[in-house]
Give the backbone structure.
Amino acid sequence: AQTVTQSQPEMSVQEAETVTLSCTYDTSENNYYLFWYKQPPSRQMILVIRQEAYKQQNATENRFSVNFQKAAKSFSLKISDSQLGDTAMYFCAFDSWGKLQFGAGTQVVVTP
Amino acid sequence: DTAVSQTPKYLVTQMGNDKSIKCEQNLGHDTMYWYKQDSKKFLKIMFSYNNKELIINETVPNRFSPKSPDKAHLNLHINSLELGDSAVYFCASSQDPTGMNSPLHFGNGTRLTVT
């Protein structure tokens, strides 16, 4: 069974600063996908970034980037130049064969 | 032009009632899902269907029955509602049933409150 762990329940960051969210997972699979989803107060689930396990290069999407360490089973998300609109719950997720498993989430609060 | 739409957005009902949540996607995806988000925001898969066929059925009470009349629709029917069923239910779709190369597109959720 796979598990996804997000050890930070809440993180606070000032506008324009950088924040890093941690995520670790446990699996015996070799091929899988990892995702970060964002859930703002509107409740909508929005895909932020995804990483394919067989790709060593870390994914980047504008101000969002990941640090994927396959051997350590770690998949952290860095938000650069934080904006007020980044305030949301962030979920790390692991997908192997169609079953997306989520971590418990990290609430990010961006302050002016 | 909402990609994944679910109705209703809010549903308040009494214990013992039967209710349905509808979901439709216009992305042309083959696979649809139901996820449940509990009061602690934890998200867990309930079901997935590929081209109207059930492919994932997690440990969910028999009171929950998904129905897929066609690949663009996946409805969730819940019988004999209980207080513990209160949650936000998300519908989602993806092109790839294995989920490996196609991220999920989520609906906006249905907040179910059972009193």
Summary: Chain B is about 0% helix and 55% strand. Chain B touches chain A at residues 31, 33, 35, 40-45, 48, 55-56, 88, 90, 92, 94, 96-101, 103-106, 108-109, 111 (CB under 8 Å). Chain B has one domain: 4-114. Residues 9 and 110 of chain B are 5 Å apart (CA to CA).
